């Protein structure tokens, strides 16, 4: 059943003295209008909205990035050569040694300290809190980014850490316990490319042993990767974590800096 409701809409120029309920002066007739509105006696149905926990968490993640949540990394907007020591073995590079002040995982004791060489012109880049693992240490279920450095002319590197339990149920497993180099990169490939990894994009896979630690090394040509068309990677496992070191470059960077990128990857050790 429909009901009628009479409404008086007043001109913004009408004063309160003109709006007496007992009378309606003719002088204000032009400033008031009467409308007859028909409406249903029953309210319209409210559409049901359904969402699951994953959608909710994804929304929170996007929201935090859109709102530009403050960064938690201690990245410095200056060239690393201004504050890192030169390499004793090669003065063309400086040495980065990760310490607890650098990452949440190192502060939590969830990652063993690592080091690598960098050209002095590179700069450290900031990592969003949601990607740094700060929110989930010391028991993260998914991989996180430890540190990132880049140079516009040469490329970029990043250290990605993954909880060991994501790859194997064996505690304190070595990288050999997890699987072959090909099996490992199949699991961690998306963290190299930023999206997906096709098996055909793996050009080389090899094994390196240094000071009792085993490393898997990779050369990848990734035309559709978000990180770059060329990627070099090196992975190892220690404690409760698998650490993946990635150097990436586009075609222009690769043509002039592939030797430098290979030297950077060679230098990484845990």
Automatic annotation (TrEMBL):
GO cellular component: extrinsic component of membrane; photosystem II oxygen evolving complex
Pfam families associated with the record: PsbP
One of the GO biological process terms: photosynthesis
InterPro entries to which the protein is assigned, alphabetical: Mog1/PsbP_a/b/a-sand (IPR016123), PsbP_C (IPR002683)
Signal sequence interval, chain numbering: none
GO MF annotation: an example: calcium ion binding
Domain of life: Eukaryota
Residue stretches making up the PsbP C-terminal domain: 113-269
This protein's name: PsbP domain-containing protein 6
């Amino acid at each position: 059943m429909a009901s009628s409701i009479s409404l008086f809409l007043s001109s913004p120029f009408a004063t309160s003295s003109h709006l007496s309920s007992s009378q309606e002066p003719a002088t204000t007739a032009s400033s008031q209008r009467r409308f007859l509105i028909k409406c249903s006696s029953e309210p319209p149905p409210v559409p049901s909205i359904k969402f699951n926990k994953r959608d909710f968490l994804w929304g929170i993640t996007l929201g935090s990035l859109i709102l530009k949540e403050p960064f938690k990394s201690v990245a410095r907007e200056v060239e690393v050569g201004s504050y890192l020591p030169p390499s004793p073995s090669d003065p063309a590079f400086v040495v980065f040694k990760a310490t607890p002040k650098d990452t949440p995982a190192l502060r939590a004791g969830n990652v063993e300290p690592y080091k690598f060489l960098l050209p002095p012109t590179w700069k450290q880049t900031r990592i969003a809190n949601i990607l740094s693992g700060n929110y989930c240490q010391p028991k993260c279920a998914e991989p996180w980014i430890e540190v990132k450095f880049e140079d516009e002319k040469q490329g970029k590197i990043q250290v990605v850490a993954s909880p060991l339990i994501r790859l194997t149920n064996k505690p304190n497993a070595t990288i050999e316990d997890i699987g072959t180099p090909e099996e490992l990169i199949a699991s961690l490939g998306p963290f190299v490319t930023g999206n997906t990894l096709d098996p055909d994009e793996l050009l080389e896979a090899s094994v390196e042993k240094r000071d009792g630690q085993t490393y898997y090394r990779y050369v990848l040509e990734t035309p559709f990767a978000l990180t770059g068309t060329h990627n070099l990677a090196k992975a190892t496992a220690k404690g409760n974590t698998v650490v993946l070191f990635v150097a990436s470059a586009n075609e222009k960077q690769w043509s002039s800096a592939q030797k430098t990128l290979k030297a950077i990857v060679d230098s990484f050790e845990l």
